[in-house]
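Final report, closing paragraph on structural work. Over the funding period we assembled a curated collection of sequence-structure pairs, and we close with a single example.
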Amino acid sequence: MESSPPNHLIRKATNLDAPLGIFFPTQSTMKLPSFFEDDLQAVDAALQRLLPAEDTPPASIHKAMRYSVFAGGKRVRPILCLEAARIFTSDVSAAMYPGCAVEFIHTYSLIHDDLPALDNDDLRRGKPTCHKQFGEAAAILAGDALLTLAFETIGAAPVDAERRVKVLTEISKSAGTVNGMVGGQVADIEAEGKGVEPAMLEYIHRSKTAALIRASITAGALCAGAPPEDVSRLRRFGETIGWAFQVTDDILDVEESSAALGKTAGKDIAQQKATYPSVFGLQRSHEIANELSAKAIAELETYGDRAARLREIAEFLVHRRA
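Its predicted structure, as stored:
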């Protein structure tokens, strides 16, 4: 894993009722950056092209895949991929392929997370989860199919073979078991109902969530032909902002309603998940999210205005309320 933050990030505070509001003075009004909608529309158009049509045999699986992909996601990961590429080139069309691939992987993980054997959730993005809409067998296979389609999509990226291999390696590792999404999910399940040390909590969050965000950003830089030192810098940025994103997600599960989140609020507490509020308390969790965000954004200073969009998204990811 990347190097840990300073020791002051792991001071323990367990008061879940600590006063709030002093860390995010604009949190109630924080909105997506203005350019985000244009990127989102471009990503959605690409996802439409890359996914098989609903009537393509076997139609049932393609309906389930499309249902979950187009269930209202913000497309944070593919947009991060595009904006990382935009630091180095004005033509980000090549980065759209790994960006969409990561969105397919992310969606597959949500479908499987919601299954009865895992989080057993009925609601995702304000709609019935895939297994509630199509049945468990179809949901499992829809997730499998999206993961497979992700790697087909990376293979179609219009970049030279060497860069395609680097992108493929980056994304596949981020989705796997060694410091990747699946490994983090396993650790997350095994930690339920148990007291966890800060180091294990960090491992879970950096693996199950930050790894795929890191890969999105790194893949964008690779597709744009960024020099190795820039790829490494943006990998660090992605790792840290992805970690902050998951800390914020933990906070929102406590502070926001199901209607605001588009998913069942309070599930982390009900399932005794290892979260930052459960280990550090809400007040300290807000501080940690802010500190991680500042550390991540510092990696972008060298790019100046070229990274303005990426910086805006990073700020939104930590200050969002849903």
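Confidence is low (pLDDT under 50) at residues 1-29. Residues 105 and 148 are 9 Å apart (CA to CA). We thank the funder for supporting this effort.
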